[in-house]
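## Example pair
The file below holds two records. Each record gives the amino-acid sequence first, followed by its structure token line.
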Amino acid sequence: MKKEQITIKQVINTLLRNWKETRQLTLDWIKKLTLAQLNQKLPRPGLNSFAKHIYEMGEIQKICIAALKEENLDLTAANKLTFESCKLVAKTKGELTDFLNRCDKEFYKTLKNIDDWDKVVSIFGEKRSRYGIIELMIIHETLHHGQFIAFGYMESIEFPKSWIDAWALPPK
């Protein structure tokens, strides 16, 4: 029996499907929570609200986009969100959603111009293939989902159905 070869296109398509599902979970989180819940103080230095987590996710995505384009990486905004415990307040839930949608729009626009997916690029002091950048985005956003789950239980937040299904969470 001949073993079927997996193509780079199949890998990219799988990663992009997983990215879309991961990002949708984040959007479902925003939709489910109230603005007050998104802005409430969390016991985490630096990323001390869900809103700050969400902005940091988008800023990391922007860094990933720059890495895909082989541009200079500006870590300023992400570092400020991650390490400074100043309060950041989202004015509306739409503000958070629009920010992530703009990040995704730029991401998908960037992908259209990539043909050499095996090319190794530098990000956060390490070397990764371009398709590895998509994997990094999925891992990063999933890390935040885990933090959201932990804080969600601490704060008795009702999880979106998509989260209950995706992460096999008890409904209550």
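Second record, same layout:
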Amino acid sequence: MLGKKILAGIFAAVILIKLAFLLISPSLWLGATQAFLGHYPLMIAIYLVLLVVTGYFVFTRIDLIDVAVVMLFTSVLLGLSLIPYLASIPQLREAIVTVGFAKAWPALVIWVAIALAVLYRIFAKKRG
């Protein structure tokens, strides 16, 4: 339980710090993000480590169907957050098509694995 609280606290703190930077000094936030974006392999490694750590807590302590519902909620919230930036999204779509699966395959594999596991849990559950 302590591990989940620590991860939840980190999540809340990071969100509040990010929003504070966006409100107080957007240029400072932009500079910080540009610095991170310059280290692609390091970013991938950090995200994979974070996925393993958080995934351990999520998939060992929470029902997979509940995880899927939370992921749906998060995806919808992310979509709502991106609506004001619709003018930039065509460039993103073009970049996704141009790059293809070559660089994004680890995330896509995880998405597919979760989706298949959820469908299996929904439809293969023994009735009665």
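Notes on the second record: The longest helix spans residues 2-24. The chain has a mean pLDDT of 87.
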